[in-house]
Amino acid sequence: MDSQKKDPLYKSFGYAFEGIGTCIKKERNMKIHCVAAILVVIAGVILKISSLEWCICLTLFGLIMALELVNTAVEAVVDLVTEERKPLAKIAKDTAAGAVLIAAIMAAIAGIIIFLPKGLTFLGL
């Protein structure tokens, strides 16, 4: 058995929420993701998207925001390890950012598929 005493579960959740809050405060892209999520929720309510469409949107919010948190963590660790420009550090940072970008592009495409027809109908087009 582990000889170190572990923090209670509520402290673990506290650390996780602190990490999320730090990322929202310090990372421009996380702020953009949060604003986009709010706008999607507003559009979803106005356009009355289905339960399945809500599940898709919520899953995509979670994926993108989770990837942004991981990207932030990778960048912080790389910066902690070295201040020099190193090829491996660049690969770590760029690929983590690329993961967020791929998820965001796919989410945008899913958003177009879900919202464009409903928006056109809402506008009477």
TrEMBL record:
It is a multi-pass membrane protein. InterPro entries: DAGK, DAGK_sf, UDPK. GO terms for molecular function: ATP binding; kinase activity; metal ion binding. It is found in: Cell membrane. ATP binds at Y15, E27, E75, K93, D94. GO terms for cellular component: plasma membrane. The active site is at E68. This is Diacylglycerol kinase family protein. Mn(2+), Zn(2+), Cd(2+) and Co(2+) support activity to lesser extents. Its cofactor is Mg(2+). It comes from Coprococcus comes. The chain crosses the membrane at residues 32-50, 56-74, 95-116. Belongs to the bacterial diacylglycerol kinase family. Keywords: ATP-binding, Cell membrane, Kinase, Lipid biosynthesis, Lipid metabolism, Magnesium, Membrane, Metal-binding, Nucleotide-binding, Phospholipid biosynthesis, Phospholipid metabolism, Transferase, Transmembrane, Transmembrane helix. A divalent metal cation binds at E27, E75. One of its GO terms (biological process) is phospholipid biosynthetic process. Gene3D superfamilies: 1.10.287.3610. Substrate binds at E68. Pfam families: DAGK_prokar.
